[in-house]
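#lab-general

N.A. 3:47 PM
ok so I finally got the sequence cleaned up, no stray characters, all 278 residues accounted for. can someone with queue access submit it? mine expired

B.Y. 3:52 PM
send it over

N.A. 3:53 PM
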Amino acid sequence: MSSLSKLWAISLISLASSVTSPIFASDLADSKFNYDLNQVSPDQSLTNKQSSQKATNDAKPKYIIEFQSKTANQWIIMVNQQPTFEVKDLPSAAIATAKLAVILNTPDFDPSQLEPLVVDGEYLGKYKNIVLFRIPKSEVVNPSLRLTQWINNLRVAAEAEPMTIVEAQKQMYQLTVTNEKIDGIASWYGPYFQGRQTASGEQFEQQDFTAAHPSLPFDTYLKVTNSQNGRSIVVRINDRGPYVGNRSLDLSHAAAIALNSDEVGIVPITATILAPLR
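B.Y. 4:20 PM
back already:
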């Protein structure tokens, strides 16, 4: 096993405290790393050591934040040993771990404020105004789903309720429900059209949450609900169609899977138009 594939872990206390000497990757690669800056120097008395240990135990944080590497470009951030999200390199892992160590162990920490947001094509995991991680759209075929998963990983690790996919999508895109609705039939399209150019000029990606509609403006967001089972998903209009029968929408394969309509193919739906909050 290469050194990069070994477990790399930094304890909360090493990241939350000030460091007077650098931590080198070469030092970490040799073995599991747990660096405690509150070690007592050898020349201190036993009494001081015992007092220091008691103070450390009394101040034990609720959330232990660590990271580990799976590959050279895949670093997993852990909260109380639960995987939450990934970053690409060691410096990013250290920074993300330090942020979480401080944020999650602040007395007024509110996990309900762990939220997703999309800004200029980047999918962000945020706490209040602090960015915890970024997912560039170009690197993930379905960034909204990945962002929802990672935010919910953090929320669950922090003992908060996870967001539904629709709640997360409305939050990340800053959308609100309107009174405009479309009742009709939805079909789906997928593998045959993968990578082809849509009417909007984009390449069709069957794993993203998109849909085709005969006339709605491109980039219109719809909350689509399967009338047979109540399952919902938010889709973005980026194509024209469908052109068969009386169908109202043609969903991407991923959207159909979310509605559990991929096997039956055609389902009755209600689509609610969503509008920007601002």
